[in-house]
Specification:
It is a single chain. This protein is an all-alpha fold and 297 residues long. The chain has two domains: 2-200, no CATH class; 205-266, no CATH class. It contains 16 helices and no strands. Helix 2 crosses helix 7 (101-123).
């Protein structure tokens, strides 16, 4: 599910893609040179800045976009001074970008929207995250996209964290950036709905809380067993005290036909979190063994 989410979020309008490419080029220009990296760090120390390093962007780790944009946006004034002092041809080009108000507006928007997307992606991860949790999070994000579009229609841009760079002088949305942002939000919403077409059809009510579910919505073959479940006072007490997955595992021993539907849904791997956690554990073991071999030899 998270992979489909990442694909949906990778679509950017051409103008915003150019700004993202500019930022990647800036970061690589500094990080690819030990001298530039050291000079930039000294500049940040001189100005008493908390962040003193830029973060590389990698296509493999897609979330690095959000981290990189956040760091560049917070250090934009220091980058402006660095490129002005450097004086090289590339630095002059970068200085011009960072001095352009329109370019900065787009950068501010990219920083904000990627931060929101990164928060969504992180919320979809975790050892005990179920597909139900992911469905709820994605539904909420799609509704937020619709809400932001509606606010832009009436000229409001107060839903992001970098308003100073993106708002006009009178607190209203700049028309050019407003139209671009609205087009991007609309395209993103359409992409999400394309990649998750079944979200509105998923009926998770019985799994979330069988005691608030109408028996008529349950398949005929398990209705009688379902009636027994919802009138089981011990099962009701367990539902209030146990985690959802644990509850349905317990019910599978007593009401197997009803629980089968819930267990199959909850068993779905909602993310690659467990897989990545396993790889991390293997890498740790491999590194420890390699270190032991080196020390032993």
């Amino acid at each position: 599910m998270i992979h489909r989410y990442a694909l949906a979020s990778k679509t950017l309008p051409f103008d915003l893609k150019l700004v993202l490419d500019d930022v990647i080029t800036m970061v690589n220009f500094i990080k690819s040179s030990a001298l530039n990296t050291r000079v930039f760090r000294l500049l940040c120390q001189e100005l008493d800045i908390d962040h003193q390093n830029l973060l590389f962007y990698t296509e493999v780790r897609w979330l690095s976009r959000g981290n990189m944009l956040s760091r560049v946006y917070s250090l934009k004034n220091q980058l402006l001074e660095f490129f002005e002092r450097d004086g090289k041809e590339k630095s002059k080009v970068f200085f011009g970008k960072l001095s352009d108000k329109e370019w900065l507006k787009k950068l501010a928007y990219l920083n904000d929207i990627f931060s929101r997307i990164s928060l969504l992606n992180k919320s979809l991860q975790g050892r005990f995250t179920t597909v139900i949790d992911c469905v709820d999070k994605i539904r909420a994000f799609i509704m937020k996209l619709e809400l932001w579009e509606a606010k832009l229609t009436v000229g409001k841009f107060d839903f992001f964290e970098s308003p100073s760079a993106t708002l006009g002088e009178e607190g209203t949305t700049d028309q050019s950036i407003g139209a671009l942002v609205k087009a991007h939000l609309s395209a993103m919403r359409n992409e999400f709905q394309t990649y998750f077409p079944d979200l509105s059809d998923l009926d998770m009510k019985m799994i979330r809380n069988p005691f608030r579910c109408d028996v008529s919505s349950i398949p005929d073959r398990v209705q009688e067993e379902f009636v027994e479940l919802v009138n089981d006072s011990i099962a009701r007490d367990q539902f209030e005290t146990l985690a959802l997955t644990k509850f349905w595992c317990e019910m599978s021993l007593i009401y197997p036909n009803v629980a089968d539907r819930a267990v199959k849904t909850l068993l779905m791997f909602a993310s690659t979190y467990l897989c990545e956690q396993g790889f991390s554990a293997l890498l740790l073991i491999k590194n420890q063994i390699s270190s032991a071999v080196v020390c032993g030899s």
